[in-house]
Amino acid sequence: MDKLVIKGGKRLSGDVTVSGSKNAALPIFISSLLAPGIHEIHNVPFLRDINTTIKVLETLGARVEGNGNIVKIDTTGINNHEATYELVKTMRASVLVMGPLLARLGKARVSLPGGCAIGARPINLHLKGLEAMGAEIHLTHGYVEAKARRLKGARINFDTSTVGGTEHLMLAAATAKGETILENAAREPEIMDLAEVLNKMGARIEGAGTDTIRISGVSDLHPFTHSVMPDRIEAGTFMVAAAITGGDIRIHNMRLDHLDALVFKLQDAGVEITNKDNVVRVRGSRKIKSVNIKTRPYPGFPTDMQAQMMALMTVADGASVISENIFENRFMHVSELIRFGADIITEGNTATVKGVKKLSGAPVMATDLRASASLILAGLAADNISEVSRIYHLDRGYEAIEKKLAGLGADIKRVKEG
Ligand code: EPU
User: Fold this and answer.
1) Of 42, 193, 273, 326, whose CB is crowded by the most CB atoms within 10 A?
2) What is the pLDDT of residue 124?
C-alpha cells in the first residue's frame, strides 16, 4: 500500500490542468451498453474507478481498448446480464448497468451495493423508478433480479434529489416505449454531460440540468464519440489548495460556472478568483476568513467539497459552522483533522470549526475519497511532515494528484508503506 509524505508550508504557484470528470465518465461508459458498436470516449481520467467500470463492461461482454486518455468500447457482444457483488462492492456506480441491461437484454441481475463509509446510500429510488417503467424486480440473495420485455415511459417524481437515480432512469428511459418525465430530478452538470451523450446516440432528452427531464423513448440508439467534461471537484480541490497555502495558481481545463457555490464561499473567505481566456487564477490571502457552509444538491454547495472546505476552515480567522445535508456520515475526516491540531466539534450533521493559527504535521489515515483530499490539504498547510496513509481511496478519484501538486511546488511524494 502507498502513502503520501508531505512537508507542509510551501505556497503553491504555477499552472495545473484538470482531468476529465470521474462522476461524469462512469455513467457515460455505462451508456455504451445501450447500443451495439464501437463507442469512443475522450478526456478519460486514469483512475481506479474507471478501471473498475471497464472490468464491469468486460464482464458483460464488451471489448475495451485504451490509448492515453481515449477509450474505445465495443459493445457488440454484450451477452451477460450479471454484475457481481465483487464488482459492485468495489464501486457502487456499477448498479447503473441495470437499466441499460434491461433495455438491451430484457433482464439484469445486479448485486445490491450495501452501505459505504459516508452513509447507507440506498438505491430504492432507482428501483422504484424502474418498477414504474414496467420492470419486474425481485431481491434475492443480495441481488436485484429485474426483467422487462420493453420498458415503458412513466412519470416519476423523486422523493429526494438523487444524481445516480436520475442518471439511471435517463439511461433506462432512452429506449423505453413512450415518454418518461423525471420530476425533482437532480441538476448536477454530470447529468447534462450524460444527456448530451445519450442525445448524440439518438435519444430525445430535454431539460437535463433542470428539475424536470423529459425523455421520449426511441427504438434504437447508435454509438457515440464524446469528450468527458472537466472534473469540477478536482478543480475545486486545487482552488482550496491555493487558498490554504496562500498560493497563486492558474487552473486550466475547468468550468468555473460549475462551481458557483464554492466560488462565492471562497470569495467570502477572502480568496481572489479571476477567469481570463478560460484559465482560472486563484490567489489565497494572508488570512482566510471563516464562512459557514451547508451542503445541498446542485447548484448548492457540493457535498464532495465539504471535507476540503473544512480543512480550509481549520486555519481561518474565527468560527465556521458546516452542515452536511446529503450524506449522514460524511464527517470521518474530522477526527483525522483534529490530529493536525484542528479545533472541531460535531453534533449530528453539524461541525463547528474554530480556526487555529497553525496546523501541525501528523500521520493520518484516509477514510474515503474526499476525506483523503482534505487531509492532503491540511498537510500542505501544516508545519513539518505529514503522512497520509490508505490513499487507495484517493486513487479512485484523483488522477496523479501528488504529481500535479508537486508541479505547483508542493513538497509531496508517494512512498510504499511499511
Ligand atoms: N438516496 C436515497 N435513495 C436512492 C438514491 C439516493 O435515499 O435511491 C439518497 C442517498 O442516500 C443520499 C442522497 O440521496 O443521501 C443523494 O445521493 P445521490 O443518489 O445523489 O448520490 P450518488 O448518485 O450515489 C453521486 C456521486 C457522489 C456524490 C453524490 C452527491 C457518482 C458516481 N457519485 O453519488 O460522489 O457525492 O452524487 O452529489 O456520481 C464522490 O465523488 O466522492 C462521491 C461520493
Assistant:
1) 193
2) 95
Report the residue among 160, 234, 370 best suited for mutation to probe ligand 1: largest number of ligand atoms under 8 A from its CB.
160
| CA–CA dist 145, 156 (Å, integer) | 21
User: For residues 183 and 172, what is the distance between their CA atoms, to the nearest angstrom?
Assistant: 15
Q: Which residue has the cell 483533522?
A: 337
CA of 32 to the centre of ligand 1 (A): 22
Q: What is the mean pLDDT of the chain?
A: 97
Number of helices and strands in the chain (H, E): 14, 24
Distance CA 366, CA 404 (A): 19
Q: What is the mean pLDDT of residues 383-397?
A: 94
Given 76, 116, 206, 268, the catalytic residue:
116
Q: Are 99 and 171 in contact (CB under 8 A)?
A: yes
Please give the distance of CA 301 from its chain centroid, rounded to a whole number. Answer: 14
Q: Which of 411, 406, 353 is nearest to 381 (CA)?
A: 411
What is the model's pLDDT at position 417?
82
Q: Which residues pair with 252 in a beta bridge?
A: 17
Nearest atom, ligand 1, residue 369 CA: 42
Q: pTM of the prediction?
A: 0.98
Which atom of ligand 1 is nearest the CA belonging to 233?
A: 41
Q: How far is the CA of 119 from the centre of ligand 1 (A)?
A: 9
Q: Give the model's pLDDT for residue 111.
A: 95
Ligand 1 atom 19: residue of nearest CA: 162
Instruction: Give start and end residues of each alpha helix (H) in 293-409.
Output: 306-313, 332-339, 369-381, 392-397, 401-407
Full strand arrangement of the beta sheet holding 204-206: 155-157, 179-183, 212-216, 204-206
Q: What is the pLDDT of residues 18-55, one digit of tens each?
A: 999 999 999 999 999 999 999 999 999 999 999 999 99
pLDDT of residue 118: 86
Residues 6+ apart with CB under 8 A from 86: none
CB 214 within 8 A of CB 180: yes
CA separation for the pair 144, 406 (Å, rounded): 44
Would you say the CB of residue 125 lies under 6 angstroms from ligand 1?
Answer: yes
369 CB less than 6 Å from ligand 1?
yes
Amino acid identity at 411: D
Q: Is 311 helix (H, G, I), strand (E, B) or coil?
A: helix
The reply to whether 116 belongs to the active site is yes
Instruction: Concatenate the DSSP letters of all residues of 40-66 into one string.
Output: EEES----HHHHHHHHHHHHTT-EEEE
